[in-house]
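dude i think i finally got it to work??
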Amino acid sequence: MARITPCLWYDGTAEEAAKLYASIFPDSSVDAVHRAPADYPSGKAGDVLTVDFTVLGMKFMGLNGGPYFQLNEAVSFQVHTADQEETDRYWDAIIANGGAPNACGWCKDKFGLSWQITPKVLTEMMTSKDAAASKRAMEAMMTMHKIDIAALERAFRGEEA
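look at this
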């Protein structure tokens, strides 16, 4: 059993968010929807108050807390991908549903949650013992929105684009 369950604050869209994440990522599901037993500051008795959901095997709770707090880049979820196809699939699904691209493999879903869609090979390049190759890979990554593995590999090897 998990000792910590991250709670994400939504403005009435926790169930919709959980359904979107479950549709994008494997080993993901909407586990339970809980309705408020009484009125509360941003809703009424019977409204969806919390949603228990799983993303890539990790448990979360979505709270429909109202407009008081907004998700921002201070918290992001990094998804490690195996290849370009998986990178493209996750990135495209997040931004296709009302999200937005950002720099260096980051994107934001329509609810404001930031995601880092990060190919495993990028992490390997950035932590390589070859400092010059790591620098070239990082410089290439800094020019990207969605990560392009082939371009990273060329940069890592020191080849012209």
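The mean pLDDT is 96.
im so relieved honestly
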